[in-house]
Amino acid sequence: MTRVVFIGPHAAFAAALGGGAYAGPAAEGAVAEAIEELDLPPALRVDRPAAADEVVDTAAWNLPEPVGLCLEEVRELRAVIEERVSRLR
Fold it and tell me: Is this structure's pTM higher than 0.85?
């Protein structure tokens, strides 16, 4: 089974919502808090995707960067990301 690895500015969110892994920095601040609210197991963080992984670049979604957003704005962004991740299944 191919593992999905998310990269880009929304990788941690997408991996938490989609049950995949992500490459990139760990979520911080309001983003980490919004992920914790999901009450899901933490997503696997990897150094880089493997050759057999399916890579989804969240930068292609053209969503605002989550850095500096307040918790309510991050929750709204989370809803959009959740909808996009659900389309990948």
Answer: yes
Strands 54-57 and 4-7: parallel
Give the residue extent of every domain in the chain.
Answer: 4-88
Give me the average pLDDT of each 10-residue run along the chain (89 residues): 90 92 92 88 92 95 89 92 90
What is the C-alpha separation between 40 and 17, in angstroms, rounded? 8
SS3 content of the chain, % helix, strand, coil (to 5): 45, 15, 40
Q: Which helix (H) or strand (E) holds 6?
A: strand 4-7
Q: Name residue 54's beta-bridge partners.
A: 4
